[in-house]
Amino acid sequence: MSESRAFCPRCGDPVAERSADEATAEGDDVASDPLRPGSEVELCDSCYFDDFDFVDAPDRIDVRVCARCGAVHRGRRWVDVGAEDYTDVAIDEVSDALAVHVDVADVAWQVEPEQVDENTIRMHCYFTGVVRGTPVDEEATVLVRIARQTCTRCGRIAGDYYASIVQIRAEGRTPASEETDRAKEIAHEIVADMVATGDRNAFVTEISEVDDGLNIKVSTNKIGKKIANKTVEEFGGTVTDAETLVTEDEDGNEVYRVTFAVRLPPYTSGDVIDLENDDGGPVLVRSARGNLKGVRVTTGERYEASYEEGTSPDARALGTRDDADETTVVTVEDENAVQILDPETYRATTVSRPDYFDPGSETVPVLKSRAGLHILPDDDV
């Protein structure tokens, strides 16, 4: 009885049959059948291993690393890799450059870095695996050269580059330190959030205090818009923007620098104002978001400016909560009046009794202004 066998197409020696399990383990759907039409006859083990390359590794890899931030240049862009030192960078680059033969199963490898000098690392790589049921191993040495450069982002930061300016101003006054300090925090928070999502173009170029407020220079118009809108969201006011053509990019597109002008409201929480053409009494401002809101210091009633008035109703400033003095309650006359000591003359004076006044109080905060003497609430409510 004759026996059908496959022979090596290179040397003519018989090729040992492989089981279906062996073929499947190495990536074939079924074991090769030499008599099946269109089938490919494999080389014998001897000829196969003559041409077998376990690992394809380059002799040398050149890595461009930003000397300022540690970013690595890959393809056409800089990438933050979060490496602690250049050895970590070298290991990552070698890992990406190595290619293991597809027929090898159970691959394991390790690397031993050798620091040749400050900018050169020799990577000794060791590999093991199994192919055609035979254990194989190989060593490869890759020289990694580190080229210290400056990435686009760090170059722009060093050159004081900016694409947008946010101007923090206030209507009829100078912004308070609480407002400017918070605007600085907002700028850094927005940039940090954008950097965390992978935006390498996000940075604050400069924050400078000027006589009438604050200027914030940032790297993109998108950041400037976010800072301006967030500031107005917290403090109220308005935002306007103006574009200035500064240059053209390499593709001939016009590049604009945008100035976002933030105008904070004339009054802030804690201000006491006297509204024009209004007989309801002074108002302690509680909020300037959307439109001005507050409480009447004569009655305790809530006040809210109309849509047309917004955050800037016609009024004159009388003072702030910080200007209030603590004084003694003499007596409660009735539901509309209370007698207190004038903090300047120490004379008993009858004033309006607002709803928030506690008749059991021995002392109360009061504000004396050109509109008279008024009791303020213990807090901003």
From TrEMBL:
Residues 1-36 are annotated as: Disordered. It comes from the Archaea. One of its GO terms (cellular component) is cytoplasm. GO terms for molecular function: ribosomal large subunit binding. Residues 8-264 form the Nmd3 N-terminal domain. It holds the Pfam family NMD3. Transmembrane segments: none annotated. PANTHER family: 60S RIBOSOMAL EXPORT PROTEIN NMD3, NONSENSE-MEDIATED MRNA DECAY PROTEIN 3. This is Nmd3 N-terminal domain-containing protein. The lineage of its organism: Archaea, Methanobacteriati, Methanobacteriota, Stenosarchaea group, Halobacteria.
